[in-house]
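#onboarding

Welcome to the new folks! Below is a worked example of what a typical request in this channel looks like: someone posts a single protein sequence, and someone else replies with the predicted structure as tokens. Don't worry about understanding the tokens yet, we'll cover that in week two.

Example request:
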Amino acid sequence: MKRRIRKFALAGIVAAGLGSVALADDLGPPEPRKLAVPTVKTELNAASADRISEDRDAAIGTGVLSDADEDIETIRERYSDGTIKIEREVRQDSDLNYIRHGVWRYFSKTGGVIAEGFYRDDLMHGAWQRWHRGDQLPLFQEAPYRDFTGPFLSEVDFKAGKMHGKWTIYDSKQRLISEVSFRDGIRDGIATWHYPNGQKSRQINFRDGVVDGDLIRWDEEGKVTVRKTYLAGRLSSTETVRYPKSKQVKSEIRYLSPQNVIDEPDDWWHAKTAKFAVKGDKIRHGSWTTYHSNGKKKATGEYTQGQTSGSHTSWHVNGQMAVQGQYEDGKEIGKWTWWHKNGQKQVQGEYEAGDKSGLWVWWDANGAVAHKRHLQPKAAVSQQLTDGKTL
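Example response:
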């Protein structure tokens, strides 16, 4: 089988009647898991048999099927008028159950191929394609699909029953509408949508099933109209608060929105894209700044997934430095220093995981030492008490 089974065989398919009959979009997923042996089995015509043989040989060449596959039988289901509806290859498993293994095809009543692909050990595997008229499914009534011309060709690769690779949808003029990357059944990688003129309309990066990275929208001339950044399914944004009277900025804080997670997975067979639901609460993440009412900075710092982290600095209303230190995992670490409004150092000491440690010194506004103290972190004190058996 080639990379795609018979891509853009549209003229022949329409000639066979696909454009004038329903495509049975409500057929359902291809077959139940176990196949019953038909009561009546007839031979395939020569053209159909040659086509299956050709595709099987190509599948063996690409590793979808194996040279060792033997005793494969071909079964046909028919419409009431005798025309072929489903053509499938099967084999028997160790319990003698017939399972799908090899070429699988679904035909319209006039002989057009509606869907085809391969099974390996009863699981969809390798390249699959399906045609949709478009007027029977909600997806094709939505932008950007509604701006294209049906019928639509939907293609994807499967690996052991799960989408693995790119799911692409083209219109009858061979124009690419959408392309979504999958890994082991979930969205992973770049997803893009296009305008009929070929220009990208939207691009999203997914990681492990959630949006992670930039979401970009363009107009039909290629101008960026929207750019948003997501982290593990959470939209990153800045929230600005202003003083009521002066309208001066009071604070600017970066937040991550509640997480967007998949509520209903993608359904390739029925051309249904994933639906997302909101989970959790918004959290602080990234830089933040607060301001005095006179417009000067009051404090700056960072949050990582809701916890304080990195450098923290604050200033007095006159612009003099007030506090400087570091956070790690929401706790103070290392040297911290405080200053009086006149610029004189006020307090200095060390932290260990949020606990004061070592020599701490306090000064008055004139620089004279007001107090000194050697401190031990709570963990060290607890250890001493434990070792001394005084607890």
